[in-house]
Structures are given as structure tokens and as C-alpha cells.
Amino acid sequence: MTSDAPSGRPDPTAEVVDLCRDLLRIDTTNTGDNDTSVGERRAAEYVAEKLAEVGVESVLRESAPGRANVVARIPGTDPSRGALLVHGHLDVVPADADEWSVHPFSGELRDGYLWGRGAIDMKDFDAMVLAVVRHWQRTGVRPPRDIVLAYTADEEAGSDYGARFLVERHRELFDGCTEAIGEVGGFSYSVNDSQRLYLIETAEKGIDWLRLHAKGRPGHGSMVHDDNAVTALAEAVARVGRHRFPVVVTDTVRAFLEEVSDLLGVELDPEDPETAIAKLGPIANIIGATIRNTANPTRLNAGYKDNVIPGRATATIDCRSLPGQSELLERQLRELVGPDIAIEYIQRQPALETTFDGDLVEAMSAALRAEDPGARPVPYMLSGGTDAKAFSQLGIRCFGFAPLRLPADLNFSALFHGIDERVPVDGLQFGVRVLDRFLRTC
Ligand SMILES: [Zn+2]
């Protein structure tokens, strides 16, 4: 059944709450372990079914039992143009029901919000895209260029069973794709009552997870001992953890800071961007992590008995590098830990950075302004990583653009992987309207 607006004209936003709620009710918890991750196949089948209902054929590709991905292509009017990839992941991080005000997989509608794990990361966008495509199919709209839809598994645990699997094993599904949109961008940040920044992701930091290995002479815990692996490792970890890497303002961050300083009337000192960033309130955390490389110790492992000095000790460091700085960061770390500690990379994914210009950026900005006259679209860098890292391997220019208008007082970044994750219903409908406009003009 097509739901229509009171005017009788088909309304692209009519279904989005139902679609999002259905997706939230499918528990797609990704534990990082195939044996305990659930629901991705069911969610993928749901998406395929909703596409098939309106005549869009899709392919379902499993990377391992239950780890399913769905890809579909909507033909555009001009096949000579490159295709636009629109991607969203279907998995979510775990949620502990005891900590939540509502059950995390209930999809409850309360106080103008739709609640549930994945409400903003990122079943909201998954549902918005489905709503737009279903609306188009029913009303005969065709996009100006091919649109490839990809609903992926496993984004929350590194994309091996999702986007990376698709890129490595089924790259033909993305033939002709030149640009992409996905998470994490397009959301609003209120500067005042009449103006809102919309942060469009044009850059992502690199992921550089590494393990430090210290070796020493094993021995008895009661003896005088000057070659203790635990001591050596602890010293190195402390040096890394306390180190503040130098500030480097990339083009993306500079463009963002200039726009924000202008809006807030804050003086931007290029030598000291941190003073301006500190005035950004809830998004200071997001932006503050994008002006330097970071290295946070996250795990320690050594020993097996209280009175035995072990011969080895290891630590994991979660490092994130600015675009083009991965090798520099490696040298910086080598210097910090010293010659006796070995460094092993356990994950190394490149940073991304593209420019904030061109027709696609114009189309995003115009769609936002049309739906919110107070919109000020700005580029920004994400300190984390997304499926864009995998898709960029195909030479695709990736943006984070999942449009969402948020209430001024909502601490959006705290909801990512947070307790009581929820999305405002009017924000969800706003997102559909923006995407509908944008995808018609992409
Ligand atoms: Zn996500």
C-alpha cells in the first residue's frame, strides 16, 4: 500500500518510520565473532524484499553463514555518467538492555524519537534510502545517473565480512561507480536559532592499530632483576599514552574551522586552533581528534603467575593517523618506544581526504539549503573509520552524507554506540526529503 500525504500527493517520507522501526527490531548485533553475531541475513533479506516489492532486483552475497550483504542498481537516465554508490551498514554494536530506558531492539516510538540500537548508526539512513527508492519506483522517478545501493554486514568490526568482502570478491557490482555517499556526515549542529552547520564528511583518519612487544629475561619474582619485560613495556606504553602529537591542520579541518569561526565570531589563530575548537561544545571532541595523530593504549598482556617474571609482554595501541601521516606516525612511535620494543601492525587502513567542491558537493549543499534555509554545509574530518575505506580502494570518491536535522540540545556524538540511541522522527523525515532532492540532482 502506498501511503499518501493528506494532499493526496505521494509523500516520500510516508514510510520511513515504519521501515526504520522494522530494521531496528531485527537484532543485528555484531560482536566481532561469526559464532555470536546475529541477524544480518534477516536484515538483508528484509531490504531485498522491500526492494523487490517495488520492482528493484537485488543480489544477496554472503561472506560467511549469516553474514549477508545486499546490492542493487537503479538505472539512471544517462548511462554515460559514472554511477553513485549509496552505502549503509546493517550491523550494530552490542547493547545491554539493562542500561537502556527502552529495550534496545524494540524500535519504540516515544517523545518524538524512534529508539533503538542502530537508530543513528545507521539504520536511519538505511531506511531513508529505502523510502526514497520505493517512492521513486511507485511514481516513476528515474535518477540522472545509475545509483548502486549497498547494504553491508560487519562495518562495526572492520568490514571484513561486509564492504571489504564485496570489494575483494564482487567488485563487478560496483562497475562504473565514481562517487559514494554513506555515514558519518550530513547531520546538523546548531550555531543559533537561525543557523545550522551541516557537517559533510570529506576526510577520515587512518586506522593504525599496533602491538608492542617487549622481551626480557624470565626469572623468579623474588630476585634482583634488571631485564624485566613488564617494566620495559610499561615504560614504553606510558610514554606513548602521555605523548601529545603535534598539531597539523589539514585542508579539510582548516575549511571547517574558518567557517565555524566566522559563524561564531571567534578569532581563529592558525597556530592555536585548539582555543577555537574548545568553544564548539559537544562537537569539540569530534573535531579535536582531527588536528593531530593520536595513540591510545587499549590492552596489556603479560605474565601467568604472581611470582614469575615473564619473558614477554605485549600491549595494543589504537593509533589514528591524519591523511598522509601514517609513515610519519610510525617513525614517531618508533622513537617513543625505543629500540628494544618491537612494533607489529595488526590493522592498517589508510586515511581518506577529498576536496569540498564539484557538482556532487553542490547538489548536497543545495538539497540541504532547500529544506533548511539556515543550513551552512561544511566539510569535516571523521576521526573514526567507515566502509568508505573499503570502497575508496575501487577509486571511488567517498563522502559521509546521511542528512539529519537534529534538535539543538541533542548531544548527537554521545549517541553513537551509546545508551538510549535514538533518532528524532522529524529529523528522519527531513533526511528523506533532502536525499530525495539530492539523488534527483546527483
Ligand atoms: Zn556506523
From TrEMBL:
Cofactor: Zn(2+)
Pfam families tied to this protein: M20_dimer (PF07687), Peptidase_M20 (PF01546)
Annotated keywords: Hydrolase, Metal-binding, Zinc
Presence of the UniProt keyword Hydrolase in the record: yes
GO molecular function, one term: metal ion binding
Domain Peptidase M20 dimerisation: start-end pairs: 202-326
Record-given protein name: Peptidase M20 dimerisation domain-containing protein
Taxonomy of the source species: Bacteria, Bacillati, Actinomycetota, Actinomycetes, Micromonosporales
